[in-house]
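Sanity check

After download, print the first record. It should look like this:
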Amino acid sequence: QVQLVESGGGLVQPGGSLTLSCVVSGSIFSMYAMGWYRQAPGKQRELVAAITKGGSTNYTDSVKGRFTISRDNAKNTVYLQMNSLKPEDTAVYYCNAGRVVAGARFDFWGQGTQVTVSS
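Expected structure tokens:
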């Protein structure tokens, strides 16, 4: 059973920084593409950043230049470094592990961690 545990959320002032971590257990971490999603109240869950097994990254436009996703395969961990935070970044952030096997996609999710940007 694949398990994802996020940490690092909290309350931060506008312009501040936070680093989210997601530890994966129960499977071979390096076989998964990883992503961070977020869901604000009344909005759909959206992809914030993703990193492939090979380390290629992509970001939603609103966080480009401010957020950085990275992974440490030795620690089974994916990170999201968030700088210059804005109130509109407030959301529950979810970690995702995805893998395609024989044409079928398998997704696993963490429980989410709250990020609140407010003065």
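If your output differs, re-run the checksum step. Summary of this record's structure: The mean pLDDT is 96.
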